[in-house]
């Protein structure tokens, strides 16, 4: 895997910077301001995306702020330029979902992923702008999805991995009824400066316990664990070299104003004296396909690609990880060409070790 691919597999779109919640661990810098994406930005993105979608599977992920805070009418206007082959996803805190939003999702074929961190007491840091717990509103949104028969994914942030938590979380999400679950250990990035340095054994134990809970009742697609098992299987088959794509997916984020930030949505909205605003161009003046063709020349991207090569030559987990995320390097190390971060320790190295620990502890006596 070397360099950036010219065509991504999906784009992230920011319909508004606004979020109606004010979660303690949020990384977004402008979440109190309602800066909406103008329709010409969506038209410009669609001009590149529609041909890509006609040639193969392609997704647009609507991710804010809180994307539903843009309102149904405006979101419909932003969706309109995209052709029928484009798959739409929304990442939402669910607090605004009601029957009318469910009808909108069904009409526009939008797949929903809900951010929820587990049972009520695990959502204490998810609060409204007035500082009140948001859990009941999140749950009401999920109930609306279920009432309307809409399948949904869930994304949980784990702020502190402790023994027993993984089993509790998995059982909660089984009951919630999601069909896919992603688990993120909280990251130090954006305006969230809280530490994410945890005891290695606690994090490895968290992942091992999650695998055990999932194996008891594997009804949910568990993103991190299934990827780890796929990698372990490919290593055993001798096909691990074929698992990562040949080139990095640029994953362009289109900010509300049309500026394009590749590789890490978390960098959008930030500026740095060395790296400027991290953008590689703006779709209002340059076609997205053209911006991506030249994105490797964005100065910080070149530095990041040097970091990926440093990972390749120094890290035994490279084949599993592919070199980590740009935003984690920047916000933890202050630059892009470093290697290990607390994020990659928590979410790559200890994840794989947790899966292997589970396998070791549960190997059959005959093996
Ligand atoms: S686990 Fe960390 S050090 Fe290893 S390849 Fe990934 S980002 Fe680089």
What features would you describe in this structure?
This protein has 367 residues and is an alpha/beta fold. Helix content is 40%, strand content 12%. It has 12 helices and 10 strands. It has helices at residues 39-55, 72-79, 99-108, 135-147, 165-176, 200-216, 223-237, 288-293, 299-314, 318-321, 326-333, 342-361; strands at residues 10-13, 58-62, 86-92, 110-115, 152-158, 180-185, 221-222, 253-254, 259-261, 281-282. Strands 7-6-5-4-3-2-1-8-9-10 form a 10-stranded mixed β-sheet. Strand 5 (152-158), helix 5 and strand 6 (180-185) form a beta-alpha-beta unit. Helix 1 (39-55) crosses helix 2 (72-79) and helix 6 crosses helix 12. Bound molecules: iron/sulfur cluster (SF4). The site of iron/sulfur cluster (SF4) has 12 residues, from helix 10 and helix 12.
Provide a quick synopsis of the model.
By secondary structure, this protein is α/β, with parallel strands linked by helices.
Write out key terms for the chains shown.
367 residues, alpha/beta, 40% helix, binds iron/sulfur cluster
Bulk shape: globular
**Uncertain ranges:** none
Cofactors, ions, other ligands? iron/sulfur cluster
Strand tally is: 10
Pairing-aware structural class of the strands and helices? alpha/beta
Write the layout of secondary structure elements.
Layout: E1 10-13, H1 39-55, E2 58-62, H2 72-79, E3 86-92, H3 99-108, E4 110-115, H4 135-147, E5 152-158, H5 165-176, E6 180-185, H6 200-216, E7 221-222, H7 223-237, E8 253-254, E9 259-261, E10 281-282, H8 288-293, H9 299-314, H10 318-321, H11 326-333, H12 342-361
Parallel strand pairs: 1-2, 1-8, 2-3, 3-4, 4-5, 5-6, 6-7
Antiparallel strand pairs: 8-9, 9-10
Bound molecules: iron/sulfur cluster.
